[in-house]
Specification:
Two copies of one chain form a homodimer.
Chain A: E1 4-9, E2 16-22, E3 25-29, E4 31-33, H1 46-51, E5 56-59, H2 61-66, H3 70-75, H4 79-83, E6 88-91, H5 95-100, E7 103-107, E8 112-115, E9 122-125, H6 127-137, E10 141-143, H7 155-175, E11 182-187, H8 193-206, E12 210-213, H9 222-234, E13 242-244, H10 250-258, E14 263-265, H11 268-274, E15 277-280, E16 283-286, H12 306-310, H13 313-321, H14 325-352, H15 355-365, H16 371-386
Parallel strand pairs in A: 4-14, 5-6, 6-10, 10-11, 11-12, 12-13, 13-14
Antiparallel strand pairs in A: 1-2, 2-3, 7-8, 8-9, 15-16
Helix pairs in contact in A: 6-7, 7-8, 8-9, 10-15, 11-14, 13-14, 14-15
């Protein structure tokens, strides 16, 4: 179970293709996993996810523990049966949500005591508790409980969070009992390459079925993330899957894969879809723009998704402007299909030895429309960093969907 | 085109089966038409509607005129192409919405000047204008512009509204030019049998492809509606389809069909679905109820809808409680499937001569859970009627979806 075979390697980058076998079918890597926070990938049916080729989805331990409760899901036969999805599922550790979403009460080496963001009820997450919850949920891949350091944070803080994550990883491994569930450790260490390498070595030594890389894309510049990624991957075993948590913009897929990442998840495609931002090879298109009011073309010519095969930009714009649910669905279908098709194309290019040329062609054409906004945000963050002070922030990293 | 053949008759009621041929396929009657106010049946894709056997849907002229505009839809090839639906469509006249939804400015024999409920822009609907808008939309069946009297209203008011509706019907017939569109007249006359008969005779004399019965289920007691229906149908030609506008609860389908009605539309199944009220043979089930939290059964055993084939009450409750769009979809699918399957069963029973026994079995089992609420409403209305005064009110009759 959970055999991971590497099927091809890129000659000039760290990119590779592989197959991870799970009790609910194979996961072809590199893989993008749509996020189904509350046991549903927002707006979609499981059959629509199958149609677009999703092999594994992510569900959030924190949310499902609070509602409807992992006990209920367990008694109903587990997440797969509960949500009618018979392919692979990965549940996260809940760590990120506890720190970013819950009303945090107290953290110590034992665990985290917090209040639910839904009803204020007092809750307690420890490594053992999080393992038990994830066993009740019954995903194919479960994650060790971790403490995710914010950005920016000083090295002393980052080290403490990393060391706690290491202790918790040991306890998670100890508490892990269901052999039909793969357990992934999570590497932390913020933006400090030395810490990241130390963390990767520690996790590799402990030995897991795969390795998550947490705490990235939380506000740091892209160049920093890419550098940290390189240093981290270097220290991880090459025969196990590497999962970059909470990252999944088109450009980050290419950059992550080139640095040896096998798995991604991100709320970005689904969240921006619901706001009318649609992926194309030339960047994001904002369907609310008046220029599309009578545009009879599909979102992107040649796209084979359900939306592009049947509907015009004009119709999609009308639905989104009129707040119609079908608009959210059709936009979500297109964006997820875009990313899943893109990683599929990337897998083929790695096998064919053409990954680097696909990467440069794509990046050249693709212009994230919000680049100016990002630049402004980066400048603001740099200022805050200079002024010092550790603060917590929310971003698309590891974030759950629409909470 | 628009040939209507009656294929069987019930021996002991006015119920009958028939086929209305349209340029976009046959409509088997009695028929229930799901409401797609803004060129989408809320939450559903056209393919899901086909899967549940819908042969004709209704779209709202008023809403589509305001957004995105009938001109845009016309230039894009009409409603069918715009929304990706290649079966029949009926558009209403906009009359009911102008009176119930718009900010009414002025009505005279020429038409109605009003302000859009969306942006306050000044608009003008006349019989000729409404015909032109419906021709741009390009539905298979279009409705004459009418003035819908409220409930309660005195006989003098009802007569004036009816007479204006008659004049407008003449002008609509005159303005009707697209021969690939059937034009239905609308019978008015409030709750007064004499007026209803007069209106039905007038419309029949004028001659239409079918006849709508408007202004019912706007607050009057059910017994009054059923009586008015009998008096109206008696005066209509038997060889043309009769369409009871804005009515479609399970019990009203039986009662309307027994009185000779061939077509229905109603927002009820879709609207209550989004609130978690689900149709079963034993009445409505409120899926938000805590008793369903760990219920592994489908909404209704034996139901063949997509929702019941794949998901439990527990999952559906979770989705609805968590405000997940998939919950709205699955609930809508079930309720529409329930009604479409029910009229299908009714058609079969009429052909088999067993309609009356199906009707009594169904009504005996079916307990609308909100019966107590209805009784209270009826009492309140009766009081208001006694106190006199014509007032406008909104109800599920002819109402558009989620405006």
């Amino acid at each position: 179970m959970f055999e991971f075979s590497i099927t091809s390697r890129c000659p000039d980058t760290e990119a590779r293709t592989g197959i991870l076998l799970t009790p609910h079918g194979p996961l072809h890597t590199p893989a993008f996993m749509p996020v189904g926070t509350q046991a549903t990938v927002k707006t979609l049916s499981p059959h629509e996810l199958v149609e677009m080729g999703a092999e594994c989805i992510l569900a959030n331990t924190y949310h499902l523990h609070l509602r409807p409760g992992s006990g209920i899901i367990g008694r109903l036969g587990g997440l797969h049966r509960f949500m009618g999805w018979d392919r692979a599922i990965l549940t996260d550790s809940g760590g990120f949500q506890v720190f970013s979403l819950a009303h945090l009460r107290h953290i110590d080496d034992e665990g985290v005591r917090f209040r639910s963001h839904l009803d204020g009820s007092e809750q307690f997450f420890s490594p053992e508790r999080v393992m038990r919850i994830q066993e009740e949920l019954g995903a194919d891949i479960i994650m060790a409980f971790d403490e995710c350091a914010p950005y920016p944070c000083d090295m002393d803080y980052a080290r403490k969070a990393m060391e706690r994550t290491h202790q918790w990883a040991e306890r998670c491994k100890e508490a892990h009992s269901r052999k039909d569930q793969a357990l992934f450790g999570i590497v932390q260490g913020a933006v400090y390459p030395d810490l990241r390498q130390e963390s990767a070595h520690f996790m590799a030594e402990l030995g897991f079925d795969g390795y998550g890389i947490g705490g990235l894309s939380v506000g740091e510049p892209k160049t920093v993330m890419y550098h940290v990624l390189e240093e981290t991957v270097r220290a991880l075993p090459s025969d196990k899957p590497r999962y970059l948590m909470g990252v999944g913009s088109p450009e980050d897929l290419f950059e992550g894969i080139a640095r040896g990442i096998d798995m991604f998840d991100c709320v970005l495609p689904t969240r921006v879809a619901r706001n009318g931002a649609l992926f194309t090879r030339r960047g994001r298109l904002n369907i609310r723009n008046a220029r599309y009011a009578d545009d009879p073309h599909p979102i992107e010519e040649g796209c084979t998704c359900y939306t592009c095969r049947h509907f015009s930009r004009a119709y999609l714009r009308h639905l989104i402007k009129a707040d119609e649910v079908l608009g959210l669905r059709l936009a979500t279908i297109h964006n997820l299909h875009f990313l899943l098709a893109l990683v599929g194309e990337i897998r083929e290019s790695i096998a064919a030895g053409t990954f680097s040329s696909l990467r440069s062609t794509f990046i050249e054409q693709y212009t994230p429309v919000d680049e100016a906004v990002r630049a402004a945000n980066r400048a603001a963050r740099a200022m805050a960093f200079v002024e010092g002070g550790v603060r917590r922030r929310s971003s698309s990293r590891g974030e759950a969907e629409g909470t």
